[in-house]
Design brief:
- By secondary structure, this protein is α+β, with helices and mostly antiparallel strands.
- The chain contains 2 helices and 3 strands.
- The chain is globular and about 30 Å long.
């Protein structure tokens, strides 16, 4: 037996609509849906200017793993509690800086 789905949601997805963005920022760890508690600020000096900053979000469980991943490559610049983080707009990002998921 199948369960009926909301036809409006299904039609929106079929028409190319995307699922709603999460209201709570989530961890950048692969497959993790936990709320972000940390901001890992980084840049790749081979690709980015020294002032350019990229961000990943981390839950408590993934903070160490993601920090180590960035750290061994020399990319990690800072780790800030999410509640204290204020993004700094940059010209390269069109005036916005938003957290990304690894691999994007």
């Amino acid at each position: 037996m199948t369960t009926p789905q909301d036809p409006q949601s299904l039609l929106g997805l079929l028409a190319g609509g995307a699922a709603a963005e999460p209201k709570t920022p989530i961890c950048s760890g692969k497959g993790c849906r936990a709320a972000a508690q940390w901001v890992l600020v980084w840049n790749n000096p081979k690709l980015h200017t020294p002032e350019r900053r990229k961000t990943w979000l981390a839950c408590e469980e993934h903070r160490e793993h993601l920090s180590q991943f960035l750290g061994v490559r020399g990319f990690l610049r800072d780790t800030v509690p999410f509640a204290q983080w204020t993004p700094e707009p940059t010209a390269e990002s069109g005036g916005e800086q938003s957290p990304a998921r690894p691999g994007r």
